[in-house]
Amino acid sequence: MRKIGLIGGMSWASTELYYRHLNKGVQKRIGTSCSAPILLESLNYCELSRISTPEQWAHAKEVLIASARRLEDAGATALMIAANSMHKVAEDVAAAISIPLLHIVDETGEKMKADGIKSAAVIGTRNVMTEPWFRQRLVRHGLTLAPYDAGRAEAIDNIIYDELMQGKASENSRRTMRTFITDIAKQDVQALVLACTELVMIVDPDANILPIYDTTRIHVAAGVDWILGDAP
Predict the structure, then answer these.
(1) Signed CA dihedral, 110, 64, 221, 158: sign only
(2) Largest CA distance in the chain
(3) Other CB atoms within 10 A of residue 125 CB
């Protein structure tokens, strides 16, 4: 098996999901006594949470590049960033290391393209839902994306940061997300992209009226493929 590097801590709740499902994926494929070889660096999210200014993003880029280099130096053969929002600087991180970076948006886009999906809506943190870097990268894979709703983006952002990133999952938030997904399903879209690693805590990708592409699940599957040598 190949050792994979994981930049986590953004948040710890999503990192826990990554660690658990990378191991479960390896166990499912090659045996219950096996574990995934993972090098994990869990960053302090205090200085990376809800950043918005160019200066803050420049700092985040340097923090993630330094982390990526440490993981490469420690023996990682590929890198994963366990957060959708931090993929805003993923190209810079990839350029600073010599090992592959498994990009969460590209893995999701390729999966949707393979499934014949042409149109979708995106839900996640505010910057993922509203900024062009995420949306444009998905569009490269042949997708048309529905416009985002500013009020919905604000409400989802609050649920993610005020609850899910603290490991909390309230029934009220579950109801709110069910309402949002029901409203989105009325639009002219074929699928929904669950573009926040924590949202799976309150949204079941397998039990909704609209096909849901969970970026975390797709990203983890790519990580398992890499570990087991199925990815080039």
Answers:
(1) negative
(2) 49
(3) 25
CA distances from 18 to 92, 213, 217, 220 (A): 22, 16, 9, 7
pLDDT (tens, 9 = 90+) of the chain, 232 residues, equals: 999 999 999 888 889 999 999 999 999 999 888 999 999 999 998 888 888 899 999 999 999 999 999 999 999 999 999 999 999 999 999 999 999 999 999 999 999 999 999 999 999 988 899 999 999 999 999 999 999 889 999 999 999 989 998 889 899 999 999 999 999 999 989 999 999 988 988 998 887 788 999 999 999 999 999 999 986 6
Asked if 37 and 2 touch (Cβ cutoff 8 Å), the reply is: yes
Residue 192: closest CA among 175, 202, 180, 174: 180
* Rg of the chain taking only CA atoms, in angstroms: 17
Cross-strand partners of 41:
7
pTM: 0.93
Q: How far is CA 29 from CA 61, 79, 103, in A?
A: 35, 21, 22
Tokens at 133, concatenated: 């870097």
